[in-house]
Design goal:
Blueprint (H helix, E strand, L loop, with lengths): L2 E7 L2 E15 L12 H7 L39 H7 L1 E20 L2 E20 L18 E24 L2 E24 L14 E2 L5 E20 L3 E12 L8 E12 L12 E15 L10 E8 L4 E9 L8 E14 L4 E13 L2 E5 L8 E5 L2 E17 L2 E18 L7 E4 L6 E4 L7 E4 L2 E4 L3 H5 L12 E3 L15 E2 L7 E11 L2 E11 L2 E4 L2 H4 L41 E3 L2 E12 L2 H4 L6 E15 L20 E2 L8 E9 L1
Parallel strand pairs: 28-32
Antiparallel strand pairs: 1-2, 2-3, 3-4, 4-5, 5-6, 6-7, 6-8, 8-9, 9-10, 10-11, 11-14, 12-13, 14-15, 15-18, 16-17, 18-19, 19-26, 20-21, 21-22, 22-25, 23-24, 26-27, 27-30, 28-29, 30-31, 31-33
Length: about 675
């Protein structure tokens, strides 16, 4: 629901908006791994030889290790135990409820013509609760548990959030003959306050009468409450001048303060400036009728980034119990390293652009070239294990981005028929320039031990760092003449001895093997109309990016008695896939390498709509000024060679050092809708 009110009284304008919402649903975890009750991953892994239900209607749990038990008459086989995905989807309760209220008010007053003051205040509040219950009749994942009942797990999570903003703006806009001047001064403040709590408890096997934390044994390690606040203040001064709309100059400076940084680094200051020249208004082009507009642009500006957690600059401590030989004793340990110099990441960007329009808007072109340099980058980087920690947020190093952006438009009308077309194309090249003292590589693990990312000076951020798979060993002679691991057999994958020392080493022979950044991005859209009919289509795509598809570790290993992709038909000796195994031995697709890196290029039909607007003479009789019916679809088709569900995926989207991983991600939904628009 949404409500808006606006009013005016002489030089005073005012208004308010209010938008409450409520939602409640039972969440199904589709993106988690099969070891964490992920439904999609479990469904992909489950061996198709076992049914979902037994003859008596109960759930079948044979995928959870039956083939690893001696009682099966075959003996222990390699098998990744997988829980019944239908049971996971239907029997786990994960009820999530949210109440959200958003609102704002504003008032503005024009003191004299062109001089106006405006104040805006807004707030956003939500209350969130989650009640999770995993019943005891779902076993734990492991052959030791097979189909035995588990201890039921219950979680209760609550979260409340309030975010307010206050903005004061003084603006001036006036024309003086051929001159125009616009100036604005802004002061803003905002605060975010969050409270969260969690209770986790386990119950008794077979007792699922109460599906909450009531009566459960509380897990103190997973039970907590937390409260934090984040404040942000900002000011801005900007002036814009134009002479005859032909020569344009703009300059601004802003200051931003964030409570996420230490007091001595809390404020950052970011200037910007731009100039523009409308060449088409010059006398030497004024009589060129086929040029509607020709404008040159040049700009430079500095922006800041404060997207880190709260209190990252503080020394924090945790507590635990340790047995030092005389029983458990409480101990305090550092959980976060102090960094009083943690501050703003800064990005300086230069841009030169061109705007063109021809033949009364029939054809338009916009072109930009940009170069940006980011310094004091905020990265969560690994630290020495001697510290007892794994990583810490730091300002470290610098990088550059440069690229080109092109946009083409066209529109025309021929009687009752009209069309508009737009297309865009862009590329970006990223390179790390420095990584602090010594320029040491930053190496981070993917979701699986054995798959790594590397950030290195001279290379893009977050490259894949893997062994290079180079076919398979077809015979004993090949195996004996090529470096290999001690467990390698004929029919196994062959890996490149990258450092050329004649010994294959998992760490020393990793190399950089591309990254998730595309060679270029592109898109286009078309709109057609004829009389009352209209059609619109929008396409979007990328070319040349690579995806680390870790699903292939399981679904193409040929080494486990579980579900496999059709690529298993190309196993040795019938093709170039590794040999099949009853037990996991040697070098298979389970050993992460370039075999798991795939081309992620795609073109997607994002939206297609068809509509009809009824003639006014038909609708006026019913008191309707405009009536349109339509049908539309979203994400209708994706053309790609990628074997996963969705090439537009990144499992660690919040970590810039680990982009482009797919590990059984949920497929993108295709949606259809029918609607009607009308005005009374």
């Amino acid at each position: 629901m949404r409500a808006n009110i606006d009013g005016k009284r002489k030089r005073l304008k005012y208004g308010a908006s209010f938008s409450p919402s409520y939602s409640k649903y039972n969440f199904v975890d589709a993106d988690a791994q099969y070891g964490n009750d992920g439904v999609i991953a479990s469904a992909l892994m489950a061996a198709p030889i076992f049914p979902v239900y037994n003859a008596d209607g109960s759930y079948n749990w044979d995928n959870n290790g039956y083939l690893r038990l001696e009682e099966n008459g075959v003996g222990d086989t390699q098998f990744n135990e997988t829980l019944n995905p239908v049971a996971l989807a239907l029997e786990i309760d994960d009820v999530r409820e949210r109440l959200n209220m958003q609102g704002s008010v504003y008032a503005s007053y024009e003191f004299i013509d062109g001089l106006e003051y405006k104040i805006t205040a807004g707030g956003d509040y939500y209350n969130y609760s989650r009640n999770y219950y995993r019943p005891s009749y779902i076993p734990l994942k492991n052959k030791a548990n097979y189909k035995d009942p588990s201890n039921p797990t219950a979680k209760s999570i609550t979260n409340s959030y309030f975010h307010w903003t206050l903005s004061n703006q003084l603006s001036f806009s006036r024309r003086f003959g051929d001159h125009s001047l616009n100036a604005v001064a802004v002061w803003e403040a905002e605060k975010e306050h969050v409270k969260t709590s969690q209770i986790v408890g386990t119950g008794v096997k077979g007792d699922d009468k109460i599906r909450t934390t009531k009566g459960k044994t509380i897990d103190p390690a997973e039970t907590y409450n937390n409260e934090y606040a984040y404040t942000f203040a900002s000011w801005l001064v900007r002036a814009q001048y134009s002479y005859k709309g032909r020569y344009m100059v703009s300059a601004s400076i802003r200051g931003d303060g964030s409570s996420r940084f230490a007091p001595n680094t809390r404020w950052g200051y970011f200037p910007a400036a731009s100039v523009g020249w409308r060449v088409s208004d010059e006398s030497f082009l004024r009589d060129v009728k086929w040029i509607d507009d020709l404008k040159l642009r040049l700009s430079v500006g500095v922006t800041g980034n404060a997207q880190i957690g709260n209190s990252e600059y503080l020394q924090l401590y945790g507590s635990t119990n340790i047995d030092l030989g005389n029983g458990l004793r409480p101990q305090v340990y550092p959980s976060q390293i102090a960094n009083p110099d943690l501050g703003w990441e800064r990005n300086t960007q230069y841009d030169v652009g061109l705007d063109l329009s021809f033949w009364k808007g029939t054809l338009g072109l916009t072109a930009d070239y940009y170069y940006s340099k980011t310094t004091d980058m905020l990265f969560d980087v690994p630290v020495s294990s001697v510290s007892g920690l794994t990583s810490s947020n730091m300002n470290i190093g610098s990088m550059e981005n440069q690229g080109v952006e092109l946009a083409l438009t066209s529109r025309r009308r021929f009687g009752d028929f009209s069309y508009s077309f737009s297309a865009n194309w862009s590329l970006n090249r990223n390179k790390v320039l420095s990584l602090g003292e010594g320029n040491a590589d930053i190496i981070k693990e993917a979701s699986f031990n054995g798959a790594y990312y590397i950030t290195r000076v001279g290379q893009p951020v977050g490259c894949y760092y893997l062994l290079v798979q180079d076919g398979i060993f077809h015979n004993k002679e090949e195996l004996n003449s090529y470096p290999h691991f001690s467990t390698t057999q004929v029919g196994d994958f062959r890996f490149v001895d990258a450092n050329g020392n004649g010994i294959l080493e998992e760490d020393a022979d990793r190399v950089i093997v591309d990254n998730y950044m595309p060679d270029f991005y592109y898109g286009f859209s078309v709109n057609l109309s004829w009389k009352g009919f209209d059609m619109a289509a929008n396409f979007q795509g990328v070319y040349g990016n690579e995806i680390l598809n870790l699903e292939r570790r399981y679904l193409m290993s040929n080494s486990m008695s579980q579900n496999m992709t059709r690529d298993a038909l190309q196993r040795f000796p019938y093709g170039e896939m590794n040999r099949p195994n009853r037990k996991l031995t040697g070098n298979t697709a389970a050993c992460t390498s370039t075999f798991h890196v795939e081309d992620g290029s795609y073109l997607r039909l994002q939206n297609l709509s068809l509509g009809y607007t009824f003639p006014d003479k038909w609708t006026r009789k019913a008191g309707i000024s405009k009536l349109r019916i339509y049908v539309q679809g979203s994400n209708l088709f994706t053309w790609t060679d990628y074997s996963g569900y969705n090439p537009e995926v990144s499992n660690h989207a919040s970590d810039a050092l680990r982009p482009g991983e797919d590990y059984c991600s949920y497929p993108l939904a295709r949606t259809f809708s029918v609607g009607i628009n009308f005005n009374l």
